Amino acid sequence: MSIKAALRDLLAGEPDETPAALYASCVAAARQPAFYATYGVPDTVDGRFDLLLLHVLLVLRQLKDEALRQELFDLMFVDMDRSLREMGVGDMSIGKKMKPMLAGFYGRAGAYEKALTETGNENLTEALSRNLYGLASGISPHAETIARYVRASVESLAAQRQDDPAEGRVAFAALD
After folding, report:
1. Is the pTM of this model over 0.70?
2. 112 neighbors 98 (Cβ within 8 angstroms)
3. Number of structural domains, the chain?
4. For 24-50, what is each residue's pLDDT tens digit?
5. Which of 158, 156, 148, 154 is nearest to 122 (CA)?
6. What does the alpha-carbon distance between residue 157 and residue 171 come to, in Å, rounded to a whole number?
7. Which is nearest to 125 in space by CA: 109, 148, 106?
8. Is position 175 within any domain?
């Protein structure tokens, strides 16, 4: 599905069910109040974007269907485009705003993927501190808890039936 088609479907209220269900699960997980109230993730556009991106990346890691992976990715950025427009960003500025968001996506994807292939949570905690909390150096006191949540979510997603994500169902770990 092209971004143009995804945007048309999203604006018409008729996105493809599977990527839309996956995306909705990611949005719901990223909007858990505990991330902001208990674990100190800034309740800002950037904080919410980073949590959404993290959850989408966790789902993308599990999807085997390349077309579905692309549809989920496209839907996320169509929604980002829509959100920017709702915040008053004009047509001429959308590209300037989207470019750093795409770069952020790929940068975080690389950092999280590398950290998730390693044993231990040191690099994952550092990546989360940098991205979720904006710390250039040092570790957020809550980043270790979120790193454990991310690892548990990876396990939860991996333990699902192979057909679940392909049918739009995913289950992240509980955030305690």
Report:
1. yes
2. no
3. 1
4. 999 999 999 999 999 999 999 889 999
5. 148
6. 6
7. 148
8. no
